[in-house]
Structure prediction request, 144 residues.
Amino acid sequence: MQNGIEAVETVDVEATWQRLAARLGSQLIDVRTRAEWAYVGIPDLGPLGKRAVLVEWQTFPDQTVDPRFAERLASELGALGVQLDDDLFFICRSGSRSLGAAKAMAAAGYRACHNVAGGFEGPLDNQGHRVGGWKAAGLPWLQG
Prediction:
């Protein structure tokens, strides 16, 4: 525990998929914007009998953190029957926003928050192209 908040574990995309498959109550939370979901795509958890929970961490287009994020996500999770000890995997484009979201939910009392390393598209390479992440690993995804 760090400053009263549980530490957030970083997990790579393949391990995230495996843990989502193995743990019934586990959830993937995509915190990107509606525009990203629509134009870039979303993780497809259909093969696992699940769906990604979509809640924006930052509002579009101003990119400010949604002050009601934790409240909104807790409501979504409650509707799904998620418990405070269930694994929550947070994903964004490359892993930065999702870390903030995971820390916010850890502060809200969720005890198993994980940040998905590499995110959905991965970090930029030297040529400015996104490399790595969910899509590059060949994990299932859908065009929004």
Q: What stands out?
A: Residues 25 and 83 are 8 Å apart (CA to CA).
